[in-house]
Design brief:
Length: 209
């Protein structure tokens, strides 16, 4: 775990998978804003005070979490300056998630519900789906811990529609990562619902006509 002070009111914390294991928290819990991840964030704020003198007592803080393609996680923590007329308030943590754009041949997105996935597929039905194979050769849907993961494999980074596709999917889902290790975890502990052509299957059987 690495602490860097960017400015008087902003620091950057870099974590890797080993840091999460040491805290006994998995990737899914970390990115889903669970109770465990909230506890970890508060522990990190305490450690940041010791490491770089970043005091957050009586301040609101905003934490921006970004999953990197190399497996690391970068947290940018901003201390919000209160209005002079305001009375000091108890510390609150607000988490703003950033979505990493598709920069690898593999990408994984998480949908909170199956309905969210179906609505995403429906949104592509008359716009992008005809050219979907030009973006990725495979797209498979898994369920793991009551949430739904769409895995894109063999992505064509030169596809002309990749930016519009990225904009469309981030309206419905959260970017998870580019890790094939996480795909193995889905295969081992999750369940595959639609293999290889999940979006086409969904629009054929579940989307509104």
């Amino acid at each position: 775990m690495k602490f860097e002070k960017i400015s008087e009111n902003k620091i950057r914390i870099t974590l890797n998978i080993e840091d999460l294991k040491e805290k006994d928290i998995d990737f899914h819990s970390f990115m889903s804003n669970s109770i465990e991840s909230q506890d970890l964030f508060l522990d990190m704020l305490d450690q940041a005070e010791k490491e770089v003198g970043f005091v957050t007592k009586d301040y609101r803080v905003m934490i921006e979490a970004l999953a990197m393609s190399n497996g690391n996680f970068v947290l940018t923590i901003t201390r919000m300056i209160p209005d002079v007329a305001e009375k000091p308030k108890r510390k609150k943590v607000a988490i703003k998630r950033k979505h990493s754009q598709i920069t690898e041949g593999l990408a994984i997105y998480r949908f909170e519900t199956f309905d969210d996935f179906c609505m995403f597929c429906q949104s592509l039905k008359f716009s992008f789906q005809t050219n979907l194979t030009s973006l990725a050769k495979k797209n498979s849907l898994y369920i793991y811990q009551d949430q739904y993961y769409l895995v894109f494999e063999n992505i064509n980074l030169e596809c002309s529609n990749i930016k519009s596709f990225y904009s469309a999917i981030t309206e419905f889902a959260y970017f998870v990562n580019h890790s094939d290790l996480f795909v193995r975890k889905l295969c081992e502990y999750g369940k595959i619902l639609m293999k290889n052509n999940a979006i086409k299957i969904c629009n054929k059987h579940f989307s509104e006509k």
